[in-house]
Fold:
Amino acid sequence: MKVKSPLEIYRYLPQTNCGECGYDTCMSFAAQIIERTVKPTDCPPLVKEAEKNPKVKKKLEELIEITSPEVKEVIIGKGDKAVKIGGEDVLHRHELTFFNPTALFYDVWDTLDDKEIDERCSKVVEYRKFYVGEFLTLDGIAVRCTSNDPKRFREVVKRVAGYGKPMILVSLNPECMRAALEEVAEERPLIYAATEDNWREFLELALEFKVPVVVRSKDLNKLKSLAVTFKEAGVEDIVLDPVTEPVGEGLKGTFERVIQLRRTAILGEDKDVAYPIMITPIAAWALEADEVSKAYWETVIASIFIVKYGDVMILHCLEPYAIMPIVTLRYNIYTDPRTPVQVEPGLREINNPSPDDPVFITTNFALTYYTVESDLTSGNIKGWLLVLDTEGLGVEVSVAGGQFTAAKVKDLIKETKIEEKVNHRYLIIPGLAARLQGAIEDETGWKVLVGPMDSGRIKGWLEQHWPPKEK
Amino acid sequence: AKFEPYKVEYPGKIEEVTLGATRAEGGTREVTITVGGERSLAFYTFDAEMPHLPVIAIDVFDRRPMLAKAVREHYEDVLDDPAEWARKAVREFGADLVTLHLISTDPLLDDRPASEAAKTVEEVLQAVKVPLIIGGSGNKEKDPEVLEKAAEVAEGERVMLASATLDMDWERIGNAAKKYGHVVLSWTQMDINNQKTLNRYLLKRVGLPRDSLIMDPTTAALGYGLDYAFTNMERIRISGLRGDQDLNFPISSGTTNAWGAREAWMKDSPIEEDTPWGPRELRGPIWEIVTGLTLALAGVDIFMMMHPGAVAVLKEIINTLAG
Ligand code: B12
Ligand code: SF4
Structure:
């Protein structure tokens, strides 16, 4: 985004503070644009006025231009399942945040039989890994044409489309690609890929079917030329593939190309390469090695480019041990560093507790809270869980930093009226908060029991310590 | 259209720090290891040459520690013999250095006296010819004494003392390093300002030479704070390259922390709705690898690790990207 201050945006707004956008003032709306939580078109009066008045329309267009991200945002798929890629503004997440997590597409190919295709598609659709209150999932399916038969490709693409996930269509053969697009262009698949050899036909396809397209070349001059040609012909949604080579000098070269592309787009302000970047970790499967080594290496390639600027990827290995680090890393790199992920403080009832059941306390850091909550729930433990507002910090950190204090525990006990809900006065605190035991007892008058270090051990601990022996 | 790559040059340079000393240099090591010297972000060799590759140290303990099964099974035969353990780490698993953790000195464990722990240091120095990192037990009161004694018996060997922290007698550890010619690991908890403060204390108040300091800004595992660790290290490295003289030192990472993540060691997911996690023998090493490789991209120069498979893969990644 070119502008850095809300003032520069304010000039373009109606300045009536009407509040229709949901913010009290145009100035706070402007600040939200800087944060990228809203878009200029979220100001209804401005949009309405622009429809009538060409002058305002021009102003709105200018505003959109100066507030659009440095790297073009491209949408694959349609409806609520669509996935956005690109749209980045910075090279390092601490400079602002990264916005659109790397989209992960897993492959099927059209020389598989239908049953195998269904198996792989189901795995992609069904994959889920719980993490800080959400399920991490996979984004889409890349359908590779290995038959080189337009009819078969079309058939398979249709079958895969039935799963409702965004798709990448993979074939260098324009005829196969055309056949597939005739079937599923409506779904807005990403087509892969236009090269030095087939670009004329692919340009036609991209224009005719209005689908986003990958341009591919190892030579960055040629890659840029392709992007410029497509742009000038009227294709807006372009993705760059600088070719992922899986090992040695090749992988090193890939790393260099990806960084040069993104750095030149953002710092060099070269709009001709300011597009999302495609990485194909699946290239690891061309290596001579055993399955696990190939899966590991694919995970390695994916990880490198989740950290460094890969916006969309085609992968192969559907083994959970390979997927899990990839989706977790993606979440970590793409969380907004400006705010810790936190949950509402307060009281949670776990598994319909009775007044005799134990009372636990934890913090409102999402990672901490969900770990504890899931350990209690899945361990079939009945209990009352107090969630302390530690400003989104974990147990040890907030004890060390003074956000987890006896006084705050006292307030929380009051606010949640837990004393009316249970008929005992025992509070179980995390092992890592042991040093607060005395202070909390003094402050609240409750008896404090120090629980285990890891909430995963609460179940075993309760067997020994609950109900409490001494009264 | 011609693609003109945007050029980036930094004014600063990361200090070069050498660990270990050969006979000619007053020690008994057969190899020494130098880290640092970067003038660009990690592996950006198109900006500036990377004079030294990141290296891997394998952890050795002077008493049985708690280890994940997948790690322990590789060390089962040497768990009670630190010298053998070190030898195995170097010979079989390709460790560039060895980190000896003197955890038996912990008053809550064996409370072994510093002078006795120092004997283990001598044994390990005998057993391997690579440079050594010597760690205490993490006990703030006792570590200064333990590391001082270790520094004394390792005089001339240019070991790294791990670690000095703000909430202990860092001065004593710094002085020991200065007196016996060692390097200090300056360890802070994910706070760039604290890292600056501690480094400045060690350099200015203790008078530690600039070529004798390495930083550990704290490693959190993939899924358990890696986002903080990555960004903290990346910011520290960029500040150093931009010329911040309090932060332009090599970085060390306790990558073994990755094994604390439940995804690395638990039998399967405690969450019913999760897709089954798959065999943990395969999950653990890749968890350590991905944690390490992410931090390698942030600028880490020394990785402290444990699983031999993870060590091998991270080495391959480093060699590939550095070219
Ligand atoms: C990530 C991290 C940070 C992040 C925090 C992000 C956040 N949102 O919390 C940042 C960078 C901000 C940070 C800052 C600091 N940190 Co810090 N940080 C860590 C780190 C690496 C991981 C902590 C974590 O997230 N763990 C994962 C969560 C899920 O764990 P958890 O909250 O403890 O929950 C578990 C258990 O407590 C238990 N549990 C939780 N609730 C309950 C409830 C019951 C009833 C039971 C029985 C169990 C239970 O089960 C959970 C799952 O296992 C640790 C080191 C490490 N590797 O552990 C240091 C660490 C916690 N930090 C530390 C310190 C000192 C700090 C700072 C004070 C540094 C400084 N000087 O500025 C600041 C404090 C900031 C503040 N409070 O103002 C020290 C704490 C030392 C101590 N014991 O006092 C640690 C241990 C590092 C170290 N080895 O020295 N830190
Ligand atoms: S809707 Fe538009 S005019 Fe009204 S307050 Fe929001 S920004 Fe201002």
